[in-house]
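Sequence, please.
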């Protein structure tokens, strides 16, 4: 899973803080909780892991903690389908969806297209919300 994380996030993290392989490995090992993640698997002629997602349910919201897709899995509609499914679950439960996205991450356009609005900015990440 760490290799997937590195593939999905390295360019974005490197642009903001610089990629420190040792720190990234230690941080991932300390914070990655398998029980709180779902692996996104692409099935076809070959089956392979292409991403992961982690959600936290709160009383009035679902917080999209992480969604990471391998570079080769992006721009084929998979991210849109996954986030749309999260939005449908949230609406059925009368909750909003919130997430954090790094400045410069192209996923910002996807989130905006799906109805997310910027509600905060800590200088490195935007907090976005969809009602």
């Amino acid at each position: 899973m760490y290799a997937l994380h590195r593939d999905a996030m390295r360019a974005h993290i490197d642009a903001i803080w610089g990629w420190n392989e040792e720190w990234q490995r230690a941080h991932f090992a300390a914070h990655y909780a398998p029980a709180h993640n779902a692996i996104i698997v692409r099935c076809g002629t070959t089956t392979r892991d292409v991403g992961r997602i982690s959600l936290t349910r709160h009383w009035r919201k679902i917080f999209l903690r992480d969604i990471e897709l391998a570079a080769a899995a992006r721009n084929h509609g998979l991210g849109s389908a996954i986030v749309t499914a999260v939005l449908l679950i949230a609406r059925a439960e009368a909750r909003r969806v919130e997430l954090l996205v790094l400045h410069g991450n192209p996923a910002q356009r996807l989130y905006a297209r799906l109805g997310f609005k910027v509600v905060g900015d800590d200088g490195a990440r935007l907090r976005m919300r969809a009602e």
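Helices lie at 2-16, 21-31, 78-92, 107-113.
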